[in-house]
From TrEMBL:
GO BP terms in the entry: carbohydrate metabolic process; glycosaminoglycan metabolic process
Chemical reaction(s) catalysed: Hydrolysis of terminal non-reducing N-acetyl-D-hexosamine residues in N-acetyl-beta-D-hexosaminides
Record protein name field: beta-N-acetylhexosaminidase
Molecular function GO labels: beta-N-acetylhexosaminidase activity
Length: 533
């Protein structure tokens, strides 16, 4: 009764004064499904307790480290307990059809509930963003947050084939991804200009293929070179470290080994992998090359089997990316060996040979419980003008294997629709909207923000085939971490919201406002970012 009277007096007081206690709205990226604010704050005192069940130990430890590093708040850990200042709790009744969802109640206590560990992790990422400083104290506005993503595939890609960055840079990117709820790290590990993963059976891939003498600078075709050798690669032990670091942050690492094109670094190491038989060096300039793997040679197929065999134990991800983009068919057309292989197998065009080879790889991967993914050239549809010039027909007589994830980057909406109608799942990384190597004039922040992975004109059933989006940090002209960061930040935050927040809840001004603390944090840690408006 006493407390009822007290509440009434408080209410009368606020009404008479014409004042409600101010609500400190959250600055949060990506924006959640719903926030129901209630009045008042909860204070985060030093030595607060975190209660959690044993299966949430990793998440509780991450929360402990965020509170310590970002807010200098010490915590007491209470494993196996359901009572504390912050409570992490698995509960199958919470958003049961939303695997990544969570509900967080902020009252005198903070409770994060989810039906899965990943949901709890996502709730923690939200919590670390909504802690604010008020009159020298760490507080959180009271509210109930209900949240889950619009898309299940929210990827960031780093192409290290062009420039090797090393694991410390990757760890840092993974931390940023985790905070932004990006959940797929698509790791470009091979390209014309570098092979970046140790394969024990083929040591020259990294002894030779990981190094080049010089690098073209400024832009494609500049013909200006820095004159400096560049190289590096990941040992298998380092790969394991990265994958483990990502797994702790619920980020799936999808490796990309490009085949049958973008093959120069591998061919420089082992010329028999190529079709022309010529010895080449790891290229120093960028752009699409003519050297392609000789997929008609059983030894080359064995090579891929061996590479995949060594990689599968390193990458638990159910998805394996085989690239498959920008294959120039000249060397295949010019090779009697390849032409006779095509005739023998009833393949009428090089695009059909590519699909035939890709399906081989798909079978191989399926045998190892992996699903193949590749850039959208793998469907055999013609997307490049140079394919027309070389009169390479579409692959008309052969279909890409079922179950493949088609990574759309080039073509029009009709092509995405056609791909979906053929029954493939699609990740949308349309180049004009998601390529981080493009300038801010080409893809301003606002355009990144409003990228919708679902193109117009799809039926509801077809929409379900769009798994989500990727944003790609292609590596040609980012020799330094600083030059890379300028391309990534702040656009990565816009892609986070494009992947997580339902289109109906997007609000660019709110996003810009919520970006401010990110900009401050990036600046404080020395990350240079580009145009943030
Ligand atoms: C690509 O940009 N070549 C996928």
């Amino acid at each position: 009764m006493k407390s009822y009277l007290l509440s009434l007096i408080c209410l009368l007081f606020f009404c008479c004064c014409g004042k409600q206690p101010a609500i400190e709205e959250y600055l949060l990226i990506p924006h959640p499904v719903s926030i129901e604010y209630t009045s008042g704050f909860t204070k985060l005192k030093n030595n607060l307790s975190i209660a959690y069940t044993e299966e949430l130990a990793n998440e509780a430890e991450l929360l402990q480290s965020y509170l310590s590093v970002n807010f200098s708040i010490n915590t007491k850990m209470k494993p196996g307990s359901e009572s504390g200042n912050i409570i992490l709790k698995l509960d199958t009744s919470i958003l049961p059809d939303k695997k990544e969802g969570y509900i967080m109640g902020i009252d005198d206590k903070i409770t994060i509930k989810a039906n899965s560990v990943i949901g709890i992790f996502n709730g923690i990422q939200t919590l670390r963003q909504i802690i604010q400083k008020k009159e020298g104290k760490w507080i959180v506005q009271k509210a109930i947050v209900t949240d889950y993503p619009a898309f299940s595939w929210r990827a960031f890609m780093l192409d290290e084939g062009r420039y090797f960055k090393g694991k410390e840079v990757v760890f840092d990117l993974l931390d940023e991804m985790a905070e932004l709820k990006l959940n797929v790290f698509h790791w470009g590990l091979t390209n014309d200009q570098g092979w970046r993963i140790e394969i024990k059976k083929y040591p020259k891939l990294t002894e030779i293929g990981a190094y080049r003498d010089s690098s073209e600078i400024h832009k494609f075709g500049s013909n200006i070179f820095d004159g400096k050798p560049h190289g590096g690669f990941y040992t298998q032990e380092e790969i394991k470290e990265v994958v483990e670091y990502a797994a702790k942050r619920h980020i799936m690492v999808v490796p990309e080994v490009n085949m049958p094109g973008h093959a120069c670094a591998a061919i420089a190491a082992y010329p028999w992998l190529g079709t022309s038989g010529k010895e080449i060096k790891v290229p120093t300039n960028f752009g699409v090359k003519y050297d392609v793997f000789n997929v008609a040679d059983p030894k080359v197929i064995q090579f891929f089997e061996d590479v995949i065999d060594e990689m599968i134990p390193l990458f638990p991800s159910p998805v394996f990316h085989i690239g498959g983009d920008e294959v120039r068919y000249n060397h295949w057309n010019e090779s009697p060996y390849v032409r006779s292989y095509m005739t023998k197998n009833g393949l009428k065009a090089p695009a059909e040979l590519q699909v035939y080879f890709t399906n081989n790889m798909s079978n191989l991967l399926a045998g190892k419980s992996r699903r193949m993914m590749g850039w959208n050239e793998i469907t055999g549809d013609r997307v490049h003008s140079y394919q027309k010039e070389e009169s390479d027909a579409d692959a008309k007589n052969i279909k890409l294997a079922k179950g493949t994830i088609v990574h759309f980057w080039k073509g029009d909406t009709a092509l995405i629709r056609r791909t979906i109608e053929k029954g493939y799942d699609v990740v949308n990384s349309y180049h004009n909207s998601t390529y981080l190597d493009y300038s801010y004039e080409q893809i301003p922040l606002k355009k990144s923000y409003f990228f919708d992975p679902i193109p117009e004109g799809l039926t509801d059933d077809q929409k379900k085939r769009i798994l989500g989006l990727g944003c790609q940090m292609w590596g040609e002209f980012i020799p330094t971490v600083e030059s890379m960061n300028l391309k990534i930040y702040p656009r990565i935050a816009a892609y986070s919201e494009a992947g997580w927040t339902d289109k109906s809840h997007k609000d660019y001004n709110r996003f810009l406002h919520a970006l401010e603390p990110f900009l401050k944090r990036w600046k404080a840690k020395g990350v240079k970012y580009d145009v943030a408006k």
